[in-house]
Amino acid sequence: MKSTLRCALISAFAAPLLVSPAVASPLSAGAVRASAPFEKSEAQVADDIAFAKGLAKEWGFVDLAGEVIQKIEKEGVSATTGERLGVVKCEIFAQGALAERDRERRNELFEQALGAYDEFLKANPNSPSAPEARSGFVTMSVAYGTALEISMEDALGEAAEQLRTRRTEVLLEANDLTRELISELEAEYRENESQAIKRELINTMIQRAQLNLEIGKSSEEGAYSFEEAKKLLEDVTFLAGDGSPGALRAYDMIGQVAIAEQNWDEAVIYFQAVVDSAIPADKEAWAIMVKDFELGQSDKEQRWLFVELSTKGLVEAMISSGDVVGATTYALHLYNTQRLEGFEFSTQLGYPSLLASARVLLDAGGVIGGNLTRGEAQWYETVEAAADDGHKNKRNRVSGTDLSLRIAQQIVTENQGNVLRIQAQKLIADITSRPGIEVDPSILYEAAEGKYFAEENEDALEGFKLVLSALQGKDQAAKIELGPKTFLRMGRIYIRMERTFEAAMAFREGCTTYVGDPENDAYNAQGYYKSMQELTAKAPGDAALQELYLEAENLAAELSTRDQNEIYYDQGERARRAKDWDKAITAYTQVTKAGTDYEKAVVWIAVCQYRKGTQREEGYQGLVAYLEGYVTDETNTVQGAREVKRKDAMATAGFYRCFHEFGTKQYAKVLASSSQYHELYPDQTSYAPLVMRMVSLSYAETGNLDAAKQGLQTLMETYPENAVIAQLGIELYKKLGAQRKTLESGSDADLVLAKEMALLMQLGNKFASSPSFTNLRAEARHWIELGDWDTAVPVLEKVVSTFEGSAEHAKDLLTYVKPDLAHGYLEQLKVTEAYAILTELIANEDKKPSKRTLLNYTRAVIGWVQGNASNIQEVPGAGQTAEDFKDATDKLNSLANSVDEKWACEWYELKFQLAYGYYKWATAEGGPKDSKKQDAAKSQLGALVQPLGTDFKGKDGVPGVNQTCEEDPELADRLGSDVLRRRLVWLWNKVG
How far apart are CA 33 and CA 927, in angstroms? Predict the structure, then answer.
């Protein structure tokens, strides 16, 4: 180590903390708007992101969190927020992994997180979010490395080797990334000495050091990696400054490297530097520091984090080096300081250090003297030594073993549901198994329960048997306190081990020999009943098992909160799900009014009668009687849990009532009984959308289409992702189609209805479970009819991409869809795209192209003229070669010659396009004009000029363009007044 670093260590003992510590951790616009009435603000999006991350982190709902992010993306966000969402997707997997308790699932989520980070960084290397993603990748790699190390503990042979190889790969990949990150941050810091950049650089250097530490630990030759880690950490101390949080974190990490090298003395130096720099073990020194630096509570709490951080490593290094006094001193320093200052232990740092301290006290033995509550505990090797130091009163003395046990119990109590509880329970088991120690049965239970939660089944069973042994000779109260839950745990372990009969017997003992605990009696009775159900199902003719089954059923009815009514109700549920209607009705009928599920049973009886088919009317009347008679009777009021059950029962009855009334075309009744269903039962996400569909269709059947459409809108707003939306949209589309047949084609009302039908079909296609050729084609035709090519084209593209290659739809694609798509591309001025399709259509020998397709092909090759009479614009074609232009002009010539009536509008247009084709051909190759093609263009127009004149108005009785086309409605609508004549004049001037 550098000598300057050793000097820094000395000064660090007294230096103040200058910065608050930050301890490092060691997814057509109009169609879319239909379901999203407004765009969310950035603040709302931020809230949604936070919600998604909470789902993953707090609840482990990773898939659901991903759906929330996809929904945000669908609703539309800014480009910056879009990139941020890319990082959030990574974070969701990461948070899900950190929160997941199942090892295999946790490792899967880590793999997904790293894959997501890698994918984002490759796709967005220069994104403002890239630094955050790189940092997240490194952090997750470190965490994944730890998770893989834990997995390796239980793996054997090839499986262990695969885990070890993967762990090394993960750590090395992250290590390479941190090298790049550090170089970038160092360069950035040299240009701009920003404190934020400095902190990020320090964090990254410490992360890289940790990676090198983990790589070194997983390698048989880890010395190089350890040295690399220490060099990095030395640099951190100089960069961060003596006594700063960054330096202290570096000291702690150096201590960890020293432990990995089994260099206990060096580890002690660094860990002790961290602890004493933060809160010295010497109480007088701490008092002076508080006074001199005017430390408030928040300042103290910041320093406390570093005591939590390094105490674990410090006491473990001291005890390993044989310094029992030092180890117990700092173990009790942590314990005392927390009580003196009122600090709280943190889950990630404090409790692990407290657990390590408890184990040190257990290993050290000896005696603890002083008032524990006031944080005055001190370790002595013997009782005599404690007494000589003033602790003569036994109430101020406790053995190291007892204090270790108390601390372990404290950790168990304060860490329900996490791995620390299991680790503390294992410590309790270690304590209680030591010779000569007599332990209360409750402590033995805690120890066994630790094994139970760790799923160490055999050890847990032995532990619980010790509990039962210890209960012998205890009074009845003690037996009832622990006996029922001990047998409950044993029964569940036997279930895990698929030893069902032993499980049944354990549950039986828990609710017979040790009966008296209402809660656990109930659980044991349930376990006994379920176990015997399983056993008798496997051996239905076994008389002995049948006898036990009957006993279990009676005990379940007698003791379980799941009383006989619940048993009958469950039997009805199983029969109903199996569609055994008669058996279900029989079981439900046995549920008495005292049962919590009585009203649900009444409703299911009616439903089962209805579902039988032979008692439909009887079932329907039963539903009506329940909803309009039983529920409204004041003598049948309910409270508490029964209110929830009633609401479920009413929701079920309301749905089947509506279903019957709609199916029998009693539309007025549907509207009267069910139009408010979704408001009364908003939680019925399966029933409510179906009822809303039937209500909307009932409005349509009674002639109120406006109300039907409003019902669809409400359905979209209430259940925006539900598949019923597509079904209802198509059904209302058909209703509007029938109405439209009664209107005058092309009228305002007809066009309004056409637009509504287009939107409905669009909606149906959007929410359809799979694409429908017929429906997509119908939607596109509506948009084409309305002249909305911008909306039609994406639909046509989807039809082609989805059904290309389908033999069933090949003819329609060739005849209708692709010609429409090509025309749409031309309308959008996407000439190249249109040309590609039209070339294919023209070349097809099985289907002769239509006249429109031929004209579109010539336009795609040649280009065309658009704009009004005073603003003529040329749209370039995609033709490149003389063969292209020859083919297009030949086709135009054939089309013009095939017109029955010359001197008519259509003929004039074809002549114009033909002349324009020669004109563009003459200049197509980028060089001097081709005089022959120029002459051909002039010749085509010259044939018109001779009878019409150069103004193309006509003479000598020959009708001019203005005479034949001025009043043509189709031309006027497409071009406007006098536009074609002016285009002819314009082109004549070009070629004349």
Answer: 50
Sheet containing strand 397-399, strands side by side? 378-380, 367-369, 397-399
Q: What are the CA-CA distances from residue 979 to residues 94, 915, 919, 965, 991 (Å)? A: 65, 16, 19, 10, 19
Residue 32 is predicted with a pLDDT of 31
Contacts of 635 (CB under 8 A, 6+ apart): none
Q: List, as one string, the DSSP characters of 521-575.
A: HHHHHHHHHHHHHHHHHHSTT-HHHHHHHHHHHHHHHHH-SS-HHHHHHHHHHHH
Strand-pairing partners, residue 379, are: 368
Do residues 790 and 828 make contact, with C-beta atoms less than 8 angstroms apart?
Answer: yes
| Contact call for residues 312 and 274 (beta carbons, < 8 A) | no
Question: Whose CA is closest to 15, among 313, 251, 175, 192?
Answer: 251
* Cβ neighbours for 709, distance < 8 A, ≥ 6 positions apart: 696, 732, 756
Distances (CA, A) of 992 to 204, 297, 915, 941, 947: 76, 95, 12, 9, 16
- Weakly modelled stretches of the chain, pLDDT under 70: 1-49, 52-66, 68-70, 72-84, 101, 153-154, 220-221, 417, 436-440, 560-564, 743, 745-746, 869, 925-929, 956-958, 962-964, 966-977
Q: What are 511-525's pLDDT values in tens digits? A: 888 887 777 888 888
- DSSP SS3 for 769: coil
Exposed e or buried b per residue across 51-65, where buried means at least 16 C-beta atoms within 10 angstroms of its C-beta: ebbebbbeebbbeeb
Closest among 700, 622, 692 to 667, alpha carbons compared: 700
Which residues sit opposite 865 in a β-bridge?
874
The CA–CA distances, whole Å, from 83 to 90, 96, 112, 665 equal: 11, 20, 18, 52
Q: Which two tokens stand for residue 133?
A: 């993603």
Q: What is the pTM of this model?
A: 0.45
Separation between Cα atoms, residue 368 and residue 379, nearest integer Å: 5
Q: Which of 299, 257, 253, 250 is nearest to 278 (CA)?
A: 299
Q: Report the amino acid identity of residue 219.
A: S
Cα angle vertex 230, ends 229, 235, to 5°? 100
Distance CA 620, CA 632 (A): 18
pLDDT of residue 21: 33
The predicted pLDDT at position 615 comes to 87
Contact 142, 211 (CB under 8 A): yes
- For residue 875, the surrounding DSSP H or E stretch is strand 873-876
Distance (Å, rounded) from C-alpha 694 to C-alpha 708? 10
CA distance 853 to 838: 7
Q: Which of 35, 142, 7, 247 is nearest to 767 (CA)?
A: 35
In which residue are the tokens 């120690």 written? 437
What pLDDT does 40 receive?
Answer: 55
What CA–CA distances, in Å, run from 181 to 175, 186, 189, 746, 854?
Answer: 10, 8, 12, 66, 60
pLDDT of residue 57: 58
Render pLDDT for 673-705 as a digit per residue (tens, 0 to 9).
999 998 898 888 889 899 999 998 898 888 888
Diameter over CA atoms, the chain: 140
Identity at 939, one-letter amino acid code: S
For every residue of 326-386, DSSP letters joined together read HHHHHHHHHHHHHHHHT----TTTHHHHHHHHHHHHHHH-SEEES-TTTT--EEESSHHHH
pLDDT value, residue 771: 82
Measure the CA–CA gap between 116 and 104, rounded to whole angstroms: 18
Nearest to 695 by CA among 722, 647, 662, 652: 662
Contact 270, 251 (CB under 8 A): yes
Question: Tokens 């949080």 sit at which residue?
Answer: 245
Residue whose pair of structure tokens reads 């103040």 in the numeric block: 16
